[in-house]
Each structure stands twice: as C-alpha cells, then as structure tokens.
Amino acid sequence: MVQKVKDVAGNKIYRVLDAIAGDDTQFTSVKILAEDKPGKLSIVLPHTDGIKDVRKDVQVTSPSNLPSDSLLNQTTNQLSVTVINTFTGYGFSYGPIVSDEDARRALSALMQKLPGLIKDGKLKHIPVKKFDGGLEKVASDGFEYLAGGKVSAEKIVFAL
Fold it and tell me: What is the DSSP letter of 149?
C-alpha cells in the first residue's frame, strides 16, 4: 500500500496529518513521505515510541513533544478529554490537563442542540467534493484539482 500511494503521488508527499494516530497509521504515514527532502508528520494524539527512529529527517509534531503549556497542546488535550468524558463517562485525563466539568457540560449541551440546528438549516456542513476511481484517479484528477487552487470551503474526499 505504501509504495502504491507513493507511486500515484509521484513520490511528492511531504506533509501528512494522521488524525487516527494508531501505531500502524503513524508508521505508515512516515513511510509514505517522499525521501528527497525532510517531511512533516502531524499526529493528533501522542506519538508512538520509535516513530522518530523510522526517519530521522521527518519532523513529528504531536502532543507528546509540545510543551505542556502550549496552547495547541492544551487545546488538543482538553478536547480529547472532554469528548472522551462526554461520550464514555470515564474520568480519564490525557496529558497534563485534567477533565473540565464545565467544558463537559457545555459540550453535552451542544450535542443535544446539534440535531435541531441541522434540521432547521441553521448549521450546515461544508460541501464535499468526492473523487472516485481509486489511486489512479486521485493522482490524475484529485491532485490536479488541489494543485490548481480550486479548493475553497469544501472537504476533499478521495475514494480508494
């Protein structure tokens, strides 16, 4: 799979956002990066041990290597903790920030209002532009669309 993605992308992937942040996705993400210059990997959860050893030239950004007082780290941790606590009831804390009961109540109230806001048309999702046809179409049509600067206020989805 890694080589197939690299081939289709012309070995030109230099930045990856790993929103899943599993051990396997982190290692795959690093391997997908082009080798001709340093790449960047951003991970939404703490990075896996050994991920930085796969390629020394890849800059890995995750809550694990941000200062505990950085705004990005605080926001990521607080959102993770709030969502986990809201939906599971666990008193779990990911990192130096503990669960915030006020944030939990606010998110819970928002989640109760969301269906009505959507039904009334007051809250709409951004348009979705989907590219079908597998990796070949992603390279020919999808990357051309992105590189052409045609993306504006829409979510781009590549169906593999």
Answer: T
